[in-house]
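Re: your question from the hallway

Yes, I did run it. Sequences:
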Amino acid sequence: MKKECKDCGAELTIPQDSMVGEIITCPDCGTDFEIVSKTEDTVEMKEAESVGEDWGQ
Ligand SMILES: [Zn+2]
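Structure:
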């Protein structure tokens, strides 16, 4: 299954056996996307938030 990266437009490949809640990382820009819903032929993703992680100094 293929999906377009919302950030850079690169093609993301979603493994057929991926599950809701899994994180797909864009190979081009490195953005993490979380699978929020999945059916046999569609997949919905949202940009994964790094909740609870402090990236600042
Ligand atoms: Zn991207």
